[in-house]
Each structure stands twice: as structure tokens, then as C-alpha cells.
Amino acid sequence: MSDDGAGEPVLRVEGLKAHYDSTDGFLDRLLGRSRRVKAVDGVSLELREGETLGIVGESGCGKTTLARSVLRLIEPTAGSVYHRGEDLTALSSAELRDRRRDLQYVFQDPHSSLDPRLTAGDVVGEPLDVHGLATGAEREDRVRELLETVGLSPSHANRYPHEFSGGQRQRLGIARALAVDPEVIVCDEPVSALDASVQAQVLNLLADLQAEFGLSYVFIAHDLRVIEHVSDRVAVMYLGEFVERGPTEAVFDPPYHPYTEALLSAIPEPDPLWEGDGIRLDGTVPSPIDPPSGCRFHTRCPRVIPDADYDLRPETWRTVMDLTLRAAEADDAASLTAARPDPTEAPRETFDGLVREEFDLPDTLPDAAAEEALGEAIDALHDEGIGAAAALLDSAFTSPCERHRPPEYELGGDHGIACLRYDDGFDEEAGTFADGSV
Description:
The chain is of the alpha/beta class.
């Protein structure tokens, strides 16, 4: 890994977007009901020579789409990708093929990424053929050399992919990427499908190759232990955006963004007596078709900022927001609680208790105005139905995190974070945010 944080980037991505149409069927298209999935939505990054940039996040956050869009395996919707100052998005197919000698990809699944009809020698030699780099005896020598470089025997050249173990297949994929002497390799979760002991071997191999050939890696993973081990810098991704980026030590100790903090808290310790103190993220990741307004993490954030009009602690505000969000998505009042039969048939006092118990709300909110608004919403839920209650909750309880989309705030030392808690308008002592600041 590189120790030098300076220097001109070998790869630079600016405002990259990858949206695609998921319109379901002829009727949706006929009625104009377009469904655009915002898999990657305005991502910028830099990769410097000889370093490893780790990209981490939950499954479905857009990591793989980002990686494939960078190399134009998927055509980006907008934005630019520069390699040594040249915009890859402006290149023709022929020009891009030549450029791919410098930019290679290691896929996540070492089984499906290898053609089962080709021998190992042909898998590794195919890039040499495509780019016209070697033929005949020279090609055979180069294939044997590459197999040895990644820890395989030259005698394996006549074997087929199914005759290799998972770790050996991934080594074969790495050898294929090395065949054209690239500058940059995008590693898309290259060890996630491997056993732990094999993971370590492949990671050590990648580190040795980087030191020997001066490679730069974009390393994608959902395992933070792997990212911490291999990366010089880290970018944390959530729902198509980066929420935090910076040097590895700055991101990991201490974590600053609530999402990063939650991810790190989920890493188990190698101690049989460890009971864990993880941060629970309630709810599911929102759909990239219709991402939340403001900060996209606010629907699950345990440190969401309360409305300044109420005197509520963040943990209490979180429970009120959970009720608000569930009410907006629910079909009827019964679906809000686990109680059966229909809780709306219960007396008002009993129904109130069922709702508060379901969402871990206190018997009485400590703020009188907030309690009055909540009581009115529960009354409406009981008497008028889910629509009336959802409207009251939405108008009464809206976080600044929902109203404002946070920019990236610079914390120094190339460390940036997209969270309103780092805006000048956030009052740390009061736990409130001045809406006019952003």
C-alpha cells in the first residue's frame, strides 16, 4: 500500500451517475409510468498511483454498478471518468479497447467469470490475443510466466476452470487481468466467495503484486475488516452515494458518519466472551427507484437530528420517525402493529398502548407539543384510518435530515463526510439544527 497521499491521480471520477429503466411491462410504458433506478447518483473519487482505494457498503448500495460504470462495462448515465487526464466516457469503442490495457477488472465470482470451454492457458492468453501482444511460443511463455506469478503451476495451463478450487480460479482471474500489464485493477469483492483462509492468501497475493508491479487498486467489499487491511483510503457508500471518505485511519478511528459507525459496530471480535455492542439499523434500505429526500440515511439513522421545535432526545425522535415512516407505507392501521385481531377494534386507550409498545414510544413524550401531535395522530389512526394519521405525522414530525441534502463537509486531511451534524448550523449541545444554514 502506498504511503504517499500526494500526487496526480491516475484515475479520477467526477459526478458519475448510473440510472437504468426498470419499467415493468407494456402497460407501464404505455401509461408513461417510468421507473428509474438510481443505482449510482453523483459519485466522485480519485485513485492515486500505487494506492488502494477501498469502497465499502451494504449489499445493494451500488458498489458493483459504480465499478462497472467506471470502466464502461456499464455505460454511465452522466459524469466523467478520467484516466491520465483523458475522459474515458468520450472514447469510441475501439479507443476504449486500447485503453483497457491499462484498466482491468477482477470479478467477484471466480466461477461464472471464467469461460468453462477454455483451458486455463486460453483464459490467460485471451487478452494477449485480443490486444495482439504475443503469439506462438512467446504467448506460451507469457502464459506460463503469469500462472507462476499468481501461484499456479505452468502445468495447470491445460486444465479447465471446473478442475480448480475457488481460490485457484480467482488466481486465474487475477492472472488474466495482469496479462496486459495494467496500471489500474478494479477488484470487485474478489474474496467474498472464498473461505477465510483462502481469502488471506488471495489478499496477500494482491498486495505482493501491487508492490512488484506498482498497481493501483479500486477494491470493493462489504467486509470492513478486509477494507481496513488492504486500503490506503476508504469511501463508504450508501444508496448510490458516498457518505464518508478519507484515509483509512481517519475513517476507522473514530468513525464519524453514523452509517460508518453502525457498520464498524457490527464487526465481531475474536473473543468467545464478546457480547457485542452493535448499533442496530432498523428498517430496510430504501428503494433506489425513489430514494428518500434530504440525507438518504435519515430513514434508518440512529442519530437523526430532531426538529428544533421539540425538546426530544435523538433516540426518542427516532422512534417517532419510525412510526411516521411506517404509517406512510402501511395499507391500514392493522399493519402497523403485531396485535391481532384488528387493533382498531380495541378501546382508544388500549389502541394507544399497542401503538406505543410496537414502536417503543414512551407512555408520554417529554415534550408537551410533541405529545399533543402524537396523540392527535393516534386518534386519527384509530378513528379515521391510516391516511389521516400519516398526513398528521408527516406534517408534525419532519427532521432537518429529511429537509436538507447534506453536502460533503471537509474535516481536514482529505477526510470528508456528508452529514448535517458537521454543518455550522448544528448545535452539538442542544442537538438541534438551524434550518437556514445549508
